[in-house]
From TrEMBL:
A single MF term (Gene Ontology): hydrolase activity, acting on ester bonds
Keyword annotations of the record: Hydrolase
Gene3D superfamilies on file: SGNH hydrolase (3.40.50.1110)
Phylogenetic lineage: Bacteria, Pseudomonadati, Pseudomonadota, Gammaproteobacteria, Oceanospirillales
Keyword Lipid biosynthesis on entry: no
Domain of life: Bacteria
Pfam families, per database record: Lipase_GDSL_2
Residue span(s) of domain SGNH hydrolase-type esterase: 15-200
The protein's name: SGNH/GDSL hydrolase family protein
Endpoints of the signal sequence: none
Length: 221
């Protein structure tokens, strides 16, 4: 109806760090505990008419296949997700850590290039004529620590391969004209498994992103 605020939809495209797996378990945090939920609630309190849509798959890589589980290549279905949820006020990409699983030889540079490929996929998605191409925020995951517990074998050596990830992702985001945020500036990964986020860490990341995305929504949509 005339005079009503336009709903701003934000698509979060990520993996288990955002899906909310509880470190050391196969359980999941509730939406309000996950950083997208913390973000949505904060933006609403800031009087944004907003919905944060999660598309977060455990084990998702940037552009590579998981040899044991199909469908973990991040480019698969991304364009359709953008098309499905358009018009979008923002797309947030937070991927990279799974590129460093032990079955892959990838470095931080490779993961950043994978994010660059996903940026292009978002921008060429077949959205309806007249709908705006959404701005993109690249969020670099926090630095992987020595992996522990049930995921240790899966991520053995990951902390060395991931070295310099924030720098490489920042370069790609700048070259592609995207917004960038380093999650490692506000939180570490969990001490329980070295890879995922505890509830307190989800809260810290979600709260930190409120101001960042508040400015993007005001400027770009």
């Amino acid at each position: 109806m005339e005079g009503e605020a336009v709903l701003k939809q934000v698509l979060v495209y990520s993996d288990s760090l955002t899906w909310g797996i509880i470190p050391g378990t196969r359980e999941r945090l509730d939406f309000d505990q996950r950083w997208p939920g913390v973000l949505e609630n904060g933006l609403i309190l800031d009087e944004h008419h907003v919905r944060v849509v999660e598309d977060c798959l455990n084990g998702r890589r940037t552009v590579w296949e998981d040899p044991f589980k199909p469908g973990r290549n991040g480019i698969e279905g991304l364009a359709q997700a953008v098309e499905m949820h358009s018009p979008l006020a923002l797309v947030i990409i937070m991927l990279g850590n799974n590129d460093f699983q032990s079955m892959h030889p990838h470095t931080a540079w490779h993961a950043a290039q994978g994010v660059g490929t996903l940026i292009n996929e978002v921008r060429t998605a077949p959205i309806e004529p007249g709908m705006p191409a959404p701005p993109i925020l690249v969020v670099c995951p926090p630095v992987i620590q020595a992996p522990k517990g049930p995921i240790a074998d899966k991520f053995v050596g990951a902390e060395e391969k991931a070295a310099g990830l924030a720098l490489e992702m920042r370069k790609v985001a700048a070259a592609e004209g995207c917004h960038f945020f380093d999650a490692g500036t506000v939180t570490k990964t969990s001490a329980v498994d070295g890879v995922h986020l505890d509830a307190e860490q989800h809260f810290a990341l979600g709260r930190a992103l409120i101001d960042v995305i508040d400015k993007i929504l005001d400027r770009d949509f």
